[in-house]
Write a structure and sequence with these properties.
metal ion binding, Metallo-beta-lactamase, Chain A, Oxidized Rhodanese, domain 1, 6-stranded mixed sheet, 450 residues, 15 helices, Rhodanese-like_dom, alpha/beta, 24 strands, sulfur dioxygenase activity, 3 domains, globular
Length: 450
Amino acid sequence: MNEIEIMTTVSLGDTSYLLVSGDEAALVDPQRDSWGLMESCASRGVRIRYVLETHVHNDYVSGALEVHAATGATVAGPARAAYAFDHLGLADEDEIAFGDVTVRAMETPGHTAEHTSYLVFDDTRQPPTAVFTGGSLLVGQAGRTDLSGDDHTEELARAQFRSLRRLALLPDATRVLPTHGAGSSCAAGPVSGARTTVMGIERRTNPALTTRDEEEFVSGRTAGLPPYPAYYRYMAGINRSGPDVLGGPPVLRPLTPARLEGLVGGGAQIVDGRERGTFAAAHLPGSLCDELDDRFARLVGEVVPFGTRLVLVLPEPAEEAADEAVLQLLRIGYENIEGYLAGGTDAWAAAGRPLRSFRTAEASELAGHIAGRRVLDVRPERPEGGIPGTLALPLAELPGRLGEMPRDREMWTVCGSGRRAVLAASLLDRAGISVTAVVRGGVRDLMAHA
């Protein structure tokens, strides 16, 4: 019996799949931290024969080599991917088989030049039962085509148009299993919250398939795309050359105030994962507030330069928080994590070291009173427009433009919910700019009183 297990990494908006046939399996587009899955397979007597990559990923560090090192699985991927490590290159119509299942490569360039989907056959005399579409056909959308640079965006958009029409020829009942989904910046627009779908539904409802005119499709895929996290530009190179094999999750070490202070003096950046109000009331000088939730690493990747050494301040229980923070950061290639502050801010203060604070407010406090105040809107995109008289600057651009920020009076930071606003406020606070963060509510609330 063949079955497909679905594993979603909510923090990145991505899904990996385990295709099991009898006691053999293939793992599709695995995350770097696939160690638990490998243990589960071993305990069930399932051998992972293959790791299938649909494309050279731009949004996370692949776990393919981790799986290969632990299980001996063959890494297979697009023939045009130019991986620098041993792998099985699959061109159009190439097949692999294990158990009672056959997987056939189907070249679907567009999201990337080498992108390949994989058709799943329980019986090659019958139509495929499923297709792994990676970053090509998504649920209600398609993968964006600008991640390889402006020089290739239009060319890839046209390739995407053709690839999607090829996929659309599959039978209605074919399961569509994309890698990218809701929460991923690899989508060309809003994506359904559903992780999987069937071809019949997509053919009828997906704008990427219902748009029949190629020029209309291309213009819709090359204009108005939101910015993607800065760390994306490093992922393809790492994945193509082959990331370091870790062999398991690293354990983060606790740091004394003196040790942390020395690391910061040497260029390390403090990232504080505590709740936003707690951070604002008392935090280490120069630290950035990035609550430890599903978006933790993504926001680190927006505002902290890739390769920066990191030290963490974490909510309790700190050991558990450290495990979660490290896994999220490793998924996007932030490996230089020195440790976390043992005892938190209490230990820091007890060691005689200073703490900083800034004011917070709810949106209701600012609503109707924007005139005369300097307001910074740091939302990544503004579908309903902005508030007249405010400065609009996506959070990802703020670190590089802090020198342009006025300092003559207090600045208020806002976003959609307060999550980005407090991170922006910590950037301004680090730069010595007086700030109030709107930590509850956001622009919609303000516009209702405009």
